[in-house]
Amino acid sequence: MPADFGKTGAAQPGAPGSTTTQRDAATVALRDVEHVPGTAKPDPILVADGVQRTFGGLKAVDVQHVEVQRGAITALIGPNGAGKTTLFNLLTGFDRPNTGEWHFNGRALAGVPAHKVARGGMVRTFQLTKALSRLTVIENMRLGATDQRGERLSQALFRPLWRSQESDITRRADELLARFKLDTKKDDFAGSLSGGQRKLLEMARALMSSPEMVMLDEPMAGVNPALTQSLLRHVKDLREQGMSVLFVEHDMDMVRDISDWVVVMAQGSVVAEGPPDAVMADPAVIDAYLGGHHDAPLSEAEEAERIAAAQAELDAEMAEREGRA
Amino acid sequence: MDTLGSIFGNGARAFIGLDTIIYALAAIGLNVQFGYAGLLNFGQAAFLAIGAYGVGISIAYLGLPLGIGVLVGIVGSAVLALLLGIPTLRLRADYLAIATIAAAEIVRLLARSGTFREYTGGSAGIGGFSQDFYALSPISEGTYGFGPWRYDERFTWIFLVGWTLVILSSVLVFLLMRSPWGRVLKGIREDEDAVRSLGKNVYAYKMQALVIGGVIGCLGGMVFALGRSSVQPDNYGTALTFFVYTVLLLGGAARVMGPVIGAAVFWLVLSVTDTALREAIDAGLPLGLSTSQVGQVRFILVGAALMALMVFRPQGIFGDKRELAINAR
User: Which of A113, A156, A209 sits opposite B180 (nearest CB)?
Assistant: First the structure.
């Protein structure tokens, strides 16, 4: 991964034609935003303050302040163990922080259970894909729709009460499946799909609820390169349709390609923010990945000095052994 | 010929007999909980016990009418489901398993304890409360049925009521499971976090499944009590729960007809092995068994038959092999 830094000449997948109105809008909106951790955005959809989560003595997440711009694709990057997934879990109600509050669309979400967060318009996917294996693809999709009358026990028994809604949902599911090229798999069990197709299905299923914000936890992990392109396009599509996206990703080419803004986490806190190119040149980010005291090449004098020191140590040891014998 | 006749006759009666009805109802309830929602309820026997004792205590000791007794059983089993579910359903699946297996034993031990003998009859149980039930019967004295199935008017009545309950419960399960509500339940079985991320209140659905399954199970307990005209605490031990699991897996979990066919086949196999062994001993075949050992040996044979089934048809009689091929999670 670190090798990706500064690799400017790498293939830029999807670069032609990827400049779009929404992308331009996001770029313009974020142009004058300062490149410092916790900076204010012109139109934030998600604002978190003082979110802390400790596991025993370990501070897994300690975020002072962070804002996510509406209608933009924001990448959340950082080395392993930086607390990205934990922050995801906290924001979406799958885990409770020790302290902290956060607002989504102005609505306070601290202490709100996960299913209500999802109903409120913030839907997430998982790092380890959670396709519902023994349900068919279309049933997976239908499950994604919210406010279903037939999901209430009182009305479930009477099909006429939910039949029309069910066919609306099915129509929408069919459209999404066609968009994600899963329509031929419609009646297969989700468990029979390949890893990449499951990622697609999970994303499509999340869209069934017409969310305002989509949180993707490593959407490209374990996906073959051909499908990666398709997934990338779908993520960009989300922005075109006016959704905000926050995603965790390790592949820097991908981050550079699709994100409007990058937030870097290390050891639980936000250490840098900015547009992709600026962030990747930021020494704080390189430190976060490589460690603060990464090896600089030695000068000749230093090298000679170290060799002399090592030699002296060896000599001393030899002398001691001889003395003993 | 006579031997074959009695094996066939007993088997045919067991296939649709009282035990089949009781186990079918218990397994239909368990199917809602375990088969569809993935809830590990290891205390289904307690729900049957509550149904049986609800009817028995209400009528025999409190002098209430049958209808109230039935209501007491249903409300009692719903309350038990809530008591078990409230602390455990937010936790990982195994906590429900531990709580239910313990609760079932608590229910049975309370029922057979000397302290409540006045109401529960202690280890002897309760008897003589089924007059009201049989008084409701519109069936006049006589013998009904054909072939091997010839029953007196009392058995015909409980038989009809029991099978009506089995059919109604199966229809209820069918209607629920084809609905979006059932879809959420099946989703929870596969991965509850995924379902939660789609905006469903997983806790509420699991609770509903636990209550519905418990109430259907309690109907089985009522048929048990009324059919035998007695309630005995030791009929509701952990063995009952595990036989109900056997029935469910035999028939195929998460299939509407699975529990019913599973119960019928389970009791058919028990009956056939039982009769065949007894006849063989009577005929003087050198099996090295006495008639008193047959009861145990037939369970050994049933166990072996079940192992064979799990090897050659692991999805159960009604299961879908494609589903098994998918390694869930």
Answer: A156
Q: Which of residues 146-185 of A touch B (CB under 8 A)?
A: 146, 148-153, 156-157, 159, 162, 166
Q: Tell me whether A294 touches chain B (CB under 8 Å).
A: no
B89, B190, B198: best to mutate for the A interface, most A CBs within 10 A: B198
Residue A297 is predicted with a pLDDT of 60
ipTM score of the complex?
Answer: 0.88
Q: With 0-12 CB in 10 A as exposed, 13-18 as middle and 19+ as buried, what is A154? A: exposed
Which residues are CB-contacts of B9 (< 8 A; sequence separation ≥ 6)? B148
Q: What is the pLDDT of residue B288?
A: 83
Å between A100 CA and nearest CA of chain B: 21
Closest residue on chain A to B209 (Cα): A153
In chain B, where are the structural domains located?
2-325
Confidence of residue B1 (pLDDT cuts 50, 70, 90): low
**Amino acid found at B100:** T
pLDDT tens across A124-172, in order? 999 888 889 999 999 999 999 999 999 999 999 999 999 999 999 999 9
CA distance A168 to A186: 16
Of the candidates B4, B22, B69, the one whose C-alpha atom is nearest the C-alpha of residue B227 is B22
Residues of chain B contacting A159 with CB distance shorter than 8 Å:
175, 178-179
Chain A residue nearest residue B189, CA to CA = A132
Query: What is the rounded CA–CA span in Å between residue A140 and residue A152?
Result: 18
Instruction: Kindly determine whether residue A132 and residue B194, on different chains, have CB atoms separated by under 8 Å.
Output: yes
Q: Which of A164-178, A265-279, A311-325, B200-214 has the lowest mean pLDDT?
A: A311-325
Which alpha helices (H) appear in chain B, and where do they start and end?
2-15, 18-30, 44-60, 66-88, 93-112, 117-120, 131-135, 153-177, 180-190, 192-197, 202-228, 238-251, 258-282, 294-312, 321-325
Neighbours of B238 (CB within 10 A): 16
Query: pLDDT, tens digit, for every residue of B302-324?
Result: 888 878 887 888 888 887 777 76
What phi and psi values does residue A120 have, to the nearest 5 degrees?
-70, -5
- Which CATH number applies to B2-325? 1.10.3470
Q: What are the chain B neighbours of A146 within 8 Å (beta carbons)?
A: 198-199
